[in-house]
Write a structure and sequence with these properties.
This protein is an alpha/beta fold. It is 20% helix and 44% strand. The chain is built from two helices and seven strands. It has helices at residues 8-30, 59-67, and strands at residues 41-49, 54-57, 74-88, 91-104, 119-130, 133-146, 150-151. Strands 1, 2, 3, 4, 5, 6 and 7 form a seven-stranded mixed beta sheet that branches. A hairpin with a 2-residue loop joins strand 5 (119-130) and strand 6 (133-146). The chain is elongated. The termini are far apart.
Length: 159
């Protein structure tokens, strides 16, 4: 072990903290309050999707962006193959594969017939440790497969 290699326990704790951050991000989008996703980012944090040149920077802009999702949206993200690499005691990177199941027009308490995922791709993240807490510095979305979000019609909804 060289002087710049992290202690194995410190590395493991950093990897786990970053992995939890990845999972908390999708939990807040799917089951929590999407506008609070911004709290998982550094104050200057960014979310971007290079495909359409979308870039959201800073906590307030992130709060507005994620908080603007339709109130009738039902989504579930499945994340896997999370690989976190600790670069230093204060920085790390990760790649995470995901599939997003999503529809708009959902009525609370109703079931939606199974659908194909709306998106499949991966996230590339960078993390910074600030005041002892790991936060997302950047999240970049890369889609391999994607399409528009389906809007349910009244006939799609069980009575």
């Amino acid at each position: 072990m060289t002087s710049h290699d992290p202690d194995p326990l410190e590395r493991l704790l950093a990897e786990r903290a970053c992995e939890r951050l990845i999972l908390e991000f999708v939990r807040r989008l799917d089951l929590g309050d999407p506008s609070t996703v911004c709290d998982l980012f550094t104050p200057d944090g960014t979310w971007e999707w290079p495909h359409d040149s979308r870039r959201v920077e800073g906590r307030e802009a992130l709060r507005a962006y994620f908080g603007s999702r339709p109130a009738d949206r039902l989504s579930r993200r499945v994340c896997t193959n999370i690989l976190v690499t600790v670069d230093s005691p204060e920085t790390a990177t990760a790649t995470t594969y995901f599939a997003t199941y999503r529809v708009d027009g959902h009525t609370e308490g109703t079931f939606v017939a199974p659908r194909l995922p709306a998106n499949i791709g991966h996230y590339e993240d960078t993390f910074r440790k600030a005041d002892g807490t790991w936060l997302l510095a950047t999240r970049t979305l890369h889609l391999a497969f994607g399409g528009p979000t389906e809007r349910l019609t009244p006939l799609d909804r069980p009575a």
